[in-house]
Automatic annotation (TrEMBL):
Belongs to the G-protein coupled receptor T2R family. It is found in: Membrane. Keywords: G-protein coupled receptor, Membrane, Receptor, Sensory transduction, Taste, Transducer, Transmembrane, Transmembrane helix. The chain crosses the membrane at residues 7-34, 86-108, 128-151, 204-224, 236-257. This is Taste receptor type 2. It is a multi-pass membrane protein. GO terms for molecular function: bitter taste receptor activity; G protein-coupled receptor activity. It comes from the Eukaryota. The keyword Calcium does not apply. The keyword Transmembrane helix applies. Its main location: membrane. GO terms for cellular component: membrane.
Length: 300
C-alpha cells in the first residue's frame, strides 16, 4: 500500500509539472495579448482566472502530498494539514465553477437562436465578468469554511493514514458533505437546445464540447473516489489529487488548442526548440499558414 502511495505521489508530481507549465503558458500569453490589445475579452478574463486557480491548486496539492509522505506518522501538528486541505477543496470549487462559467460563455456565443431569458442572463453576467471571477473563489472558500465546524481532523483511513483528513462527525456533517460535492462537481453549462452559428469556428465548438466531456468524465471519477473515502474510509485521497491533476492538465491543453493564437505560438516555439537539435527534426509539428479569407469568427 505504501508503494502505491509513493507511485501516486510520483505520478502526481509529473502531472503537476505539465499542469503548471500549460497554465503558466496560458497566463503569460493572456498578459501578452492584453499588452497588445489593452483589453481582455470575457473568455480571456475567465481563462486567466482558471489558470491561476489551477496553478495554486496544484502547488498546494503537491505540497500537502509531499508533507504527508515525509511526515508518515503525522508527528507535525494537524492544523497546517487541515488548512491546506481546506484551501485545496475551495480551489477545486473555484476550478469547477470557472470551467462552468467558461462553457456557459461559449454556449451563448455558439448558438443562433438563444431564448430571450437566456440572453438577458448572459448580458447581465458578461457585463460583470471580472466581478464574477473574483467572487467565485470567495464563494468557494465560504462554502468550505463550515468543514471546520461539522468535520473533524482525524486519520481514520484503513492503512497508511493520511494527516489532517477532514471527516464528518454526525448526520449534519454527512449532509454538508453531500451538498459540497453537488456544488463543487455538478455544474456543467451547455446550450444544446440550439444549433451552432453557421459561421462559427469548428475549433471553438470542439473546445467547448471537449471541456464538457472532460468535465463529465472527471465528475464520475471524482464522485466515486469521494464515495470510497467518505463511506468506506479508504486511503485514496492522493488518488483524488492525481485525477484532479489529470483534469487540470487536459483542460489547459484543450484551452490552448481552442485559442488559435495560443496554439500557433506554442507550436512555433516547440519547432524553434527542435531546430537546435537536428536529430529531433522528425518531431516537428507542421505549422498552418494563415488563410486569405475566413468565415465569421467566434471570439475566444
Amino acid at each position: 500500500m505504501y508503494m502505491n502511495k509513493v507511485a501516486i505521489w510520483v505520478m502526481t508530481g509529473l502531472l503537476a509539472t505539465t499542469t503548471v507549465f500549460f497554465n503558466v503558458y496560458i497566463f503569460l500569453m493572456s498578459i501578452w495579448n492584453y499588452r497588445q490589445k489593452k483589453k481582455w475579452s470575457p473568455s480571456e478574463t475567465i481563462i486567466l482566472a482558471l489558470s491561476v486557480a489551477d496553478v495554486a491548486h496544484q502547488l498546494i496539492c503537491y505540497f500537502w502530498m509531499t508533507m504527508d509522505e515525509l511526515d508518515s506518522k503525522c508527528l507535525i501538528d494537524q492544523r497546517p494539514y487541515t488548512v491546506m486541505l481546506l484551501l485545496i477543496y475551495s480551489l477545486k470549487f473555484t476550478i469547477m465553477w470557472d470551467t462552468s462559467f467558461l462553457t456557459f460563455y461559449y454556449s451563448t456565443k455558439l448558438v443562433s437562436t438563444p431564448n430571450h431569458c437566456y440572453t438577458q442572463i448572459q448580458d447581465a453576467i458578461l457585463k460583470h465578468v471580472t466581478l464574477a471571477v473574483c467572487l467565485i473563489p470567495l464563494l468557494g472558500l465560504g462554502t468550505c469554511m463550515p468543514m471546520l465546524m461539522v468535520f473533524k481532523s482525524d486519520n481514520i483511513t484503513a492503512a497508511n493514514k493520511d494527516c489532517g483528513i477532514l471527516t464528518p462527525t454526525n448526520n449534519i456533517g454527512h449532509v454538508y458533505e453531500a451538498m459540497y460535492l453537488i456544488l463543487s462537481d455538478m455544474k456543467a453549462s451547455t446550450n444544446g437546445a440550439h444549433r451552432p452559428k453557421l459561421g462559427s469556428q469548428m475549433r471553438v465548438i470542439q473546445m467547448a464540447l471537449s471541456l464538457v466531456a472532460v468535465f463529465i468524465l472527471f465528475l464520475v471519477i471524482d464522485l466515486f473516489v469521494n464515495y470510497q473515502i467518505s463511506v468506506n474510509h479508504e486511503n485514496i485521497i492522493g488518488l483524488t489529487f492525481c485525477f484532479t491533476s489529470i483534469y487540470t492538465t487536459v483542460t489547459a491543453m484543450v484551452l490552448i488548442y481552442g485559442k488559435k493564437t495560443f496554439w500557433k505560438a506554442l507550436i512555433h516555439e516547440f519547432n524553434v526548440c527542435l531546430d537546435e537539435y537536428p536529430c529531433l527534426y522528425c518531431l516537428k509539428v507542421p505549422e498552418q499558414k494563415a488563410k486569405p479569407s475566413t468565415p465569421e469568427q467566434v471570439q475566444t
